[in-house]
Design brief:
The protein is α+β, with helices and mostly antiparallel strands and 139 residues long. It is 16% helix and 40% strand. The protein has a single domain, classed as Diaminopimelate Epimerase, Chain A, domain 1 (Roll), CATH 3.10.310.10.
Length: 139
């Protein structure tokens, strides 16, 4: 779905929905502070048009090579970063002619370089960082 008018709680939002191994719904915004994305995220995630629920990515295009995102991840809620969601944001931005195919994605968790190559492979590059470690008790 490209630029689909989705009615959410009496408000119509233009969404681009796509599969990136799981369902993703992208909404392009001008200003994160002007939109209550934390309220809309779970409403869209559980909207009837997405019977298996969906990730919701709010995307602000800075320029043709940079975008910002805020993520409401399916079954999780607000998420600082997600490779899958970032890839979906880039593909949605290219489909809507908002960015080039090679983009820096800025999320609260960091910056992810992503390229949608001409052979249709979507490649993200970056480091992984351990954010938690624990031990499972053995009985």
């Amino acid at each position: 779905m490209v630029d689909y008018p989705l009615n959410v709680d009496g408000e119509t939002l233009a969404v681009t929905a796509l599969q990136m191994g799981n369902p993703n719904c992208c909404i392009f915004v001008e200003d994160f502070d002007a939109l209550d994305w934390r309220r809309l995220g779970p409403l869209i995630e559980n909207h009837r048009v997405f019977p298996e629920r969906t990730n919701v990515i709010f995307v602000r295009v800075r320029d043709r090579r940079n975008l910002e995102e805020r993520i409401w991840e399916r079954g999780v809620g607000e998420t600082e970063s997600s490779g899958t969601c970032s890839c979906a944001a880039v593909v949605a931005a290219v489909i809507n002619d908002k960015t080039d195919r090679s983009v820096q994605v800025h999320a609260p968790g960091g910056v992810i370089p992503i390229e949608w190559r001409d052979d249709d492979e979507v490649v993200l590059t970056g480091s992984a960082e351990l954010v938690y470690s624990g031990k499972w008790p053995v009985k």
